[in-house]
Amino acid sequence: MTGRVVAVSRSATHTMSKPNQPVITLLAGLGVAGDAHAGITVRHRSRVARNPNQPNLRQVHLIHAELHEELRRSGFNVAPGQMGENITTEGIDLLGLPTGTRLRLGAEAVVEITGLRNPCKQLEGIQRGLMKAVLDRDEHGNLIRKAGVMGIVIAGGDVRPGDLITVELPPPPHRPLEPV
């Protein structure tokens, strides 16, 4: 299974949207160089308030461009980086991957998927109704989170728009993604 990088984004401050960049550098065990969420321990403000010593399983945020298209068809105007993601992908069902999947991005970088992004109310600041639009229910009434996946950096390297993404599934049994 392969896909490609559509856009890369980072922000040195805790803003919802992250400006697109020509390249980002992933740092093993830390995250995106120059991004507010990079670090060994959690950097997300609400999680730091609860326990600042917990490991950072949210070093890199990835969203599939197909979600942006789905949202546009529903009347939302969203662009890569606007929902806080570092890497916008295309051609990979990120939400369908099991926990522990590794994504090879470009020539060197490897990100291991740790879980689902739990969408936050800040999405409403982008456009009213966006939070509800990235949540759904399956046929059993279970909540479906569509706002992307989170990961940790296993191997560092530069990532650019247009880079190839190769998916490496973990050994079975596969565990479905849960919010992190």
UniProtKB/TrEMBL annotation:
Superkingdom of this protein's organism: Bacteria
Pfam families on file: MOSC (PF03473)
Domain MOSC: start-end pairs: 16-168
Molecular function in Gene Ontology: catalytic activity; molybdenum ion binding; pyridoxal phosphate binding
Protein name: MOSC domain containing protein
